[in-house]
Amino acid sequence: MATVEDYVARIEGTCGEEKDVIVVFKYDKKDEAIARILKKAQLKNTIAGIIFELTFQDTSFRLYSSGKAIFRSIKNKQELNNLLTNLLL
Amino acid sequence: MDTQAIRQDFPILKRQINNNPLIYFDNAATTQKPRQVIDAISDFYENHNGNVHRAVHTLSLEATDFYEKSREKIAKFINAKESSELVFVRGTTEAINLVAYSWGLSNLRKDDEVLVSLMEHHSNIVPWEIISKLKGFTIKYANVNADGTLDYDDFESKFSSKTKIACLSHVSNVTGIINDVKRIAKVAHDNGALMLVDGAQSAPHLAVNVQDLDMDFLAFSGHKMLGPTGIGVLYGKKELLEKMGPFQGGGEMVKEVEFSQGKGCSIIWNDSPWKFEAGTPNVGGAVGLAEAVKYLEAIGMDEVLSHEKALTKYAVERMQECSKVTIHGSLDLSKKCGIIPFSVKGLSSHDVALICDNYGIMIRSGYHCAQPLHQQVLKLHSSDRASFYIYNTREEIDRFVEVLKEIEHF
To answer: How far apart are alpha carbons B214 and B83 in whole angstroms?
Structure first.
């Protein structure tokens, strides 16, 4: 059975007051992860089909075709894990 | 200066990132390495590797020769009087910690004061804060003007007979502003205090003459000036280093460790600079850094600075075409190196950096380890930073500005 860890290489807290969280997808799974996310999240805006502004379950985030996503206002690890589980699995 | 020829020396610049040619604008964080430096390190490990000092076999003697000649080369680069004034460390952070622990623990007392500016990198704040908790002295923070320039009047007014050391970055890692460290060193000495300069952002970009600037300590990192990671330098005036106790204990830093019944252990420290280099040093790193210095000297540090200033001027002009881009700090290019802090309206610094990354452009986002400067002075949650070096071009700036203009439509 697939897990979030199958898709995610690393999660980084950002430096700065915003406390955003950056999720880096595994290189060989990034295209699949992006496709799954785009299928489930609501698209708000895009630049040239490589940067996507999305919302999912009241959380806004940006997804990059390079295989990274930046999530804002994430309260804790569990909340992020739940979001990723619902987006990816 | 032939930038195109220089670029040929840097293998990584041929890389594609996210299907775009790499544009590396994160040079204030670390620089790329020329083939000459990579080859020098390889040559050392392939042909000359041995542990330095205190052995008689050929490889140890060769390695020692490489290590000490590297020290001489780098000492000349900053115009130290003697190579023994140069201690090899891991980087700027370790160099400042060495002074804070080795000099600070012995020389700072309850009623003393240490003077630091608000524009410092955390590495020139945190070590002093740690030692102040142990010794009970006061740290005074000098103000920085809203444009990121040092408030010289405030800095100078904070000196007193209690001030024992002033700590200031030569060039701000956020704004690229060059501080007049010679002026502050004079005031420090007039008040009987020492002067420590964080040269992490100056030694790679401009000619630093420790005798002319009369600094007591200078700290800088190899990896920010084409050298490898894990090697850096603490310069200290000979008479100061000689009086200081060791930073860490171990091999190399002692002459004798004698144990006798009834008397216990008696230790005689090695001479400077080896007294401060406990354990096996990073010999390959020192060799790489010396090669990096050779590379920079071949270009000429005045040329390096002039190239960066020209790029900065061009980038500032082009970035001002972008209506949502705000450049932070003073734009007086006569007092500035090749660092541009900026923000894009409506986007977090990390969004901007990730978008740039998508186009193969590497910039840094966040506090850049200078949270007090961001919060107290620039009043920013974070910022983006583009920083240039010898291999960057106007064409790369054009591409960067194109991407910034695209971002504006987001």
So the answer is: 16
